[in-house]
Amino acid sequence: MGPVFFCNDLLHWISIGLVQISFLFQHDYEMFRFIAEVEYAHAPAIEDAGEGNGAMTGAPDEVGEIAVERAYAEAKFDKAFNLKLGKDLTPTLWQLNHYPNLVMPYTEPQMVKNVFKGRNIGLLAHGKLGGGLRYHAWTGNSEASYTQGAGGQITIVDDKQPLSLGGKITWESNFSNGSVAVAALAARYNDATSGSTSPLGLEMNLTFERFLVWAEYASTKKGDPALDGKVSGFYTVVSYAFDVGSQGQLSPFFMVDTFKDTSSAVDAQASNRYALGLNYKPVATAAAKLEYLRTLAANGNAESTGLSMSLAYFFN
Fold first, then answer.
1. What is the pLDDT of residues 160-211, one digit of tens each?
2. Which residues are 171's β-sheet partners?
3. d(Cα 104, Cα 274) in Å, to the nearest integer?
4. Greatest CA separation found in the chain?
5. What does the domain layout of the chain look like in residue ranges?
6. What are residue 123's phi and psi, to 5 degrees?
7. What is the Cα–Cα distance from 135 to 114, expressed in whole angstroms?
8. CATH architecture of the domain covering 72-313
9. What does the alpha-carbon distance between residue 260 and residue 93 come to, in Å, rounded to a whole number?
10. SS (H, E, C) 66-103
């Protein structure tokens, strides 16, 4: 796996950054598979901002992260039952296919990891049931978090929550010109601090000739009764792939992305985003993207408009 570069908001100024470099380690041994994804995200600065202590308080461009994003060991028993043990195993459509050479847009939908949680440690069982049905069932708890002091010292906070449960049922079908997969998800997150939540979700992944459609919807009530609110999100991505001969594929795409959090009086977290762009894949392991993104607040006023470019390359 390789780097993702981007130029952000080209309509007003040029900002070039290194979004991430990810290293994917995989080893297969008989019925077992081991995978670890180490991600260097948003380029944490080596130098300080002039204060001489290497702190991250002086400039926002010093903020970054080096972390193990996804890591698990998998035992493959048969097509009906397989078991994963590790972290970041939530099997939503976007999280299963979140790599830049697989997803069409550069921008991640707002609902991802904000309704069904993304960072967790636990067990995931999955397999095929027959008749086009596939299942995922998982249990786990959140990761411990960390805080960083003014001098850059890292303190681990053991705030892991009680075990949570979740499940997903998918129906898949192939036809002469494509395929379709629809899924329903449900989970129960037990959080001793902010209260428990029970999100529900629906997904669709449709391919028809050269068309590709992804769609996800999920919602949950706020766990804290005092907030008396609901969090919900929806996105859909539609694309069409043009062959450009030996030069690969060029896919125009359009994304509608909505997110709503009614726990605050003014619904400050509600926004609608619209993305229009081009995804060029010269080979299956590389993608270059150009994307125009417009974000609207709940009242319909424009919050931001920008043009982004990104380049991703996965290598062995």
1. 667 789 999 999 999 999 999 999 999 998 776 667 889 999 999 999 999 9
2. 133, 182
3. 13
4. 64
5. 72-313
6. -115, 145
7. 22
8. Beta Barrel (2.40)
9. 20
10. EEEEEEEEEEEEECCEEEEEEECCCCCHHHHCCCCCCC
Q: Which of 201, 193, 190 is nearest to 115 (CA)?
A: 201
Structure tokens at 119: 């960072």
User: What's the Cα-to-Cα distance from 278 to each of 193, 238, 253, rounded to whole Å?
Assistant: 43, 12, 6
- In our burial notation (b when 16+ CB lie closer than 10 A, e otherwise), range 119-147 reads ebbbebebbbeeeeebbbebbbbbeeeee
3-state helix, strand, coil in the chain (%, to 5): 5, 60, 35
pTM: 0.81
| 302, burial (CB in 10 Å: exposed 0-12, middle 13-18, buried 19+) | exposed
Task: Return d(Cα 68, Cα 51) in angstroms, integer.
Answer: 30
- Hey, what's the torsion of the CAs at 78, 79, 81, 87, to 10 degrees? 100
CA separation for the pair 53, 115 (Å, rounded) = 38
